[in-house]
Each structure stands twice: as C-alpha cells, then as structure tokens.
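Sample intake sheet
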Amino acid sequence: MIAPAKLWTYEAVGISGTSPIIFLHGFMGRGQDWMPIAHRLERDAYLILPDLPGHGQNTQRNIVRPLSFDKLGKELAYLLDHLGLMTVDLVGYSMGGRLALYFAIHYPNRVRTLVLESASAGIILAKDRKDRQIVDSAHAEQILEEGMQRFVDSWYKMPLFHSLAMQKERFENIKQARMNNDPGWMVKVVCDLSPGYQPHVWDQLRLLEMPVLLITGEMDNKYTSIMQEMGMSIKKSKEIIVSGSGHNCHVEQPERFLHYLMEFLGVETD
C-alpha cells in the first residue's frame, strides 16, 4: 500500500506477536492518554497508541490539506500495514470512537473486535448537522481569539465532564495537557472532523459482523442513550454502563473500564 501521508506517530508497549490492540484517543488528546490502561495489559497483548493527525507529535504534515474520516481511515490502514498487522482489536474513545466505527465499517476485514467508548454513529438530520457546524465554527473562533487556555476551560465546563471535574487533581492534569495542543491544529481538527461534516453511519451499523462493545458512563445521559440505540442495530453488540463515570470512562473509572474491556477481549490480567 502506498503511504497516503506521513506515518502516524505512535507508542507501542507489550509483546509484539501477541494480540494487537489499537487505542484511538479523543479530541485534544494523544496516544499517551491510554498508557495507564496499556501498561496493565502489556504482559498479555501488543498495544499501539497512535497520535491522531494534529495531536501529540503527529503535527509534521501540511496543515492546509483537508482532514476527513475517509483520509484518516486510509492512514490508519497504512499504519496497520506498516506494523504488519492484518487484523486488530480496535478501541476508540469519543472522536477516536467515531473514527474506529468508520474504520470498522469501511475496513471490516481489518477489525477483529470493536470497542466504542462514548461514541456516536453521527448526526442524521441535515439541519442538525448544520447546527453542529455552526457550533464548531464558534469553537474554532474561540481558539483563535482567546487561545487554548480559555478554550479548554470552556470545553471542560460541558455537562459531559462534570463527573470528571470532581476528580480535581486528575481533571487539572488533563486540562493542562490539552492546553499544550497547537491552536492552529485544534482549529483545523474541530472544523474538519466535526460531526457536522462527517456523514452518519446509522444505516450501516447492521453491516457490522464483528463483536462490538459499547461503553458509556452512567452520568453521561446523552451518549448512553445514543449508544443504546446503536446497540439495537448491531448484530453482536454488548452494552456496558460504567457506574461512577461520565463521558470519559477509561480515565474516571480505569479499573472498571479495564475489567469490562478485558472480559470482552478475553485477555487475562493479574
């Protein structure tokens, strides 16, 4: 396969040749966000933690060129080819979950199992997509006018993150890491990869043949409802609602998230 762009930066832990698991982070995140989970699995699996375009170290590319989920899907397939991985267990959180779902639908032979945390199959109505485009354009303007610090403070005041904010030290560390993102790239990502521009895949969920785990937090009513509806269309789906958690289950309740993940994947841990 010809490289569609520069190879994504990534970190890998565990034993090459064992069960490969790829973790995709959310908006403003980086591959390292998954490291606490990956370290718990490194004796039994091979964990790959890529930085999505515009995030972490994955900024050495032409910022003028458009981003799309079609382009990201091709680049993820190229990463798998580079690593010599025919099939993987694919885990995605939030924006990374949207990409994981897109990839599983368009590259089903590359995904053994799919785990979606607080993700969505997209926005169906054209009016609602337009409304989301307007919202994300406003987010971009805020980044440009006020800078990353004020944008991050505003972003994490959303109800999705109220439960995370109760873990004060962890919450502040996450916000500080997000502020280190390049503002130009965050403007591009929030616009180009907005759910307002990504075609919905609700009508394609029935095509998924691999086992799918849907994970949400009990305090994240919006995404719990969305993913329960998604589960009705996916043949081999299992839904888990994590107690004591909001949108970001693997950070807020890592032990519970890990338990459900490993039970689903059939990986033993100490």
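Comment: The chain has eleven helices and seven strands. Residues 10-123+199-265 form a domain with the Rossmann fold fold (CATH 3.40.50.1820).
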